[in-house]
């Protein structure tokens, strides 16, 4: 279980800064505080929902095998959602380039 946790930490470290820049780049200067608060709220809500799913799967069991299985399940869901969001973002970029280049 050490390798997935290290990968999560590395991935979050590599993604969180650019994600904040990307999310807040188009916010008007006068609304920057509100946009930042909304961004941080969304991040914390995602963390809380992940914890809810994890403990719903384990039922609060202290058994290591159950916790490991729940961790792997949550990791797969999070990885799948990240992959889906990356594909959607990539599709939006490709779609924008095609629209801009059309006469």
TrEMBL record:
<keyword id="KW-0812">Transmembrane</keyword>
<feature type="transmembrane region" description="Helical">
    <location>
        <begin position="6"/>
        <end position="25"/>
    </location>
</feature>
<feature type="transmembrane region" description="Helical">
    <location>
        <begin position="37"/>
        <end position="58"/>
    </location>
</feature>
<feature type="transmembrane region" description="Helical">
    <location>
        <begin position="70"/>
        <end position="88"/>
    </location>
</feature>
<keyword id="KW-1133">Transmembrane helix</keyword>
<keyword id="KW-0472">Membrane</keyword>
<dbReference type="InterPro" id="IPR036259">
    <property type="entry name" value="MFS_trans_sf"/>
</dbReference>
<protein>
    <recommendedName>
        <fullName>Major facilitator superfamily (MFS) profile domain-containing protein</fullName>
    </recommendedName>
</protein>
